[in-house]
Write a structure and sequence with these properties.
Order of helices and strands: HHHH
Radius of gyration: 24 Å
Largest sheet: none
Helix content: over 70%
Amino acid sequence: MAVEKIYNAIKKLPSAEREKLRHLLDNEDSGKENTKAFERAAGSWNDFDADGFIEEIYLRRSSSVRTGPQW
C-alpha cells in the first residue's frame, strides 16, 4: 500500500529530518490560520501612505544629520 511505502520511507530518514517533518506537519494548520489573520489585517491599513513613508525614509537617510527614533 502507499501508506506503508510512505511510512517505510519516513523510517529511513535521519532523526533530524524526521523531527523537521514532524514539526512541519504539526504546524501546518496554524500556518493557515496565521495566513488568514494576516489577510484580514492587510486591508485595515487603507489610510496608510506607503509611497510617502518610503519617501520619508529616503529623505532621512540622505540627511546629513541623522537622529535617533522620535518616539
